[in-house]
Design brief:
The protein has about 625 residues and is an alpha+beta fold. The chain is built from 21 helices and 18 strands. The strands form six sheets. It has a six-stranded antiparallel beta sheet with strand order 6-1-3-4-10-9.
Amino acid sequence: MADLAGRLLERAQRLRLEMMSEADLTEPPRPDCKSRLSDRAAAQLELILAGDPLLGGAAAAADEEKSQQLLSRLAAGHGQVYSAGDSERGIHLRLWLGSASFAAGPALSELRAVLKLGPQASHEHELRGFAAEAYTLECPRGPDPPRVFLQLWHGSDLFGLVKVLLDPLEEQEVREILSVRGYVQLFDGTLEVNAVGSDAVVGSLHVSLHAGLSSVLLSLESKLAEESLQLGRQQAPLCADLAAAKLRIAAEEDLGRMLEDFGSTGHEQPATLASVGMIKTSLLRNVSSLSGSEASALIADILKVPRCLDDAEVDPGFIIKRLETMAAEVKNPLDKLVKEVGDEAGTLAMDLLDVSSPAQIQRQDLSRLLRLRSLEVSWSTLEDIFTSLGCTGASEVLPAAPFARLFRRRAEARAQQSARLRRLELEVLSWFRGTLPRGKSCLELVSAYARADGNIDHLGLAVFLRPAVTALGCPAAIQDLDLLAESLVDRLGAPGSRGVSARALAAWLEGEESMSGQKKNFRAGFKARNRTRQRQALQAPGPGPRLLEALEAGALVFLKVVGELLADSIQVSTARLQVISAEEGSSLVCVQIKPGPEHEPSADEAMANLSLQLGDPSSKLGASVLGSYFC
């Protein structure tokens, strides 16, 4: 017993840990310190913290009574007490690297992970680790350094940095290391990977950090690897079902109609509970193409249980509200992606439908498709899409066909919104120009809503536009007021600003808006994307009307031809479509689509159809005699 107490006291005396490193943070890694990354928990780095006497002579002079007290404190209530032998000095740290995902850059198999200590560029002296009191097992100071860095190298280039903070060990953690399990988990979570030289986030990496005795950590290594493999095998089908179910839920227009299956009228909440089996049946009836396993995965995710029995009773109103929230969480990042790709949303939607013949799509597939189209999309946007669908690992996949269909629906919804805003903008302009007091300039009119710096923010712009929108007498237009104000701020405001200058807004009212500064064309304009094709059409004219360098405002006959061609392309009567103007020297055509009979597409649907045909040579508009102008 005395020998065991002495060994335990010696162990406590060596709880002052030191970390040694002489490598520079910017120095390429040596071959012996490389660890190749793979997709999931395939890399591990071990940092040995060698022990030295903690309290020096004071600890060595500890009497036998204190040794017995320490032994009783450690052994009380525990079945096994770990002691260190001669070959096992100090406590070891083991760093586990889990799933990783990056927006762009090299493949995971081309990256190497290197562990560095502390924020300094180099270390020429000993770095103190955890300092623990021999008898109280408390950590009054440390660790020093308070953080370690994980470097990701691509050849001789430093690709990214991950910072791992180290907190002081608590008394209970020291107890667990010495007398309970032989190890303690210090950290387990996903960390951001930052670009070198900036705070830009280029990806994420899952990191687990354990501290303990080396023999215990070695046995833990195989155990954790097997658990991770088994967990991945069990969760893979469930994650795939959940992702597919969320995509199908987000594609539905009105989930509230499910309330009718539980005896509710309108959108009132059901008064009674319903079984899980009834809710599954309602989901299968109301959600297109949803399978039984996908419905089960949805309910299990909402209730936060691994599995839910069909006869269990739940509140259907709560389930439906969570489904609506879930659908919004999926649609929001997709809408952000549609906004970032801009006019290429329709093209990207067709590309996704073309590549959806494989059953699954990964992050790399979507990133590769965006790079192929030279589209710049933020990493956070792509990550939010996969995270909202429950895919947190880089190797996890999405069902390709439902994802492509949902993206196309969101692209169509944004095209309809853009068309609606274009029409609203034309009507607002017409109202302002018709009601402007005689002798008063537009600049005087808008300056009343400007701030002291001469700019009009989103709120001031909404107040300025409200009389014109209200005068239209359309409730839908009033709902679009904030969207119109936001679009004008984005288009007319300076990059990075949150407002519009009074002069820019006055120029917009007067029709002198500069086209060069627009981010998007919110007038119903059609820009010629290839003037070379137009000139070729002039040199070798075919049958039908010829397009001069630009449409002239006085070419009334040609305007009529353009109107008939556009009306035929979007399947509306010619009387509904009016070509308002074609500016001389500009490749811009402004049109207005009026309401029509029920058997024809609505104005919003017609404008959305026209937006999708622009730039598509295979469309009906692109195949026409004026296809070289519009596509």
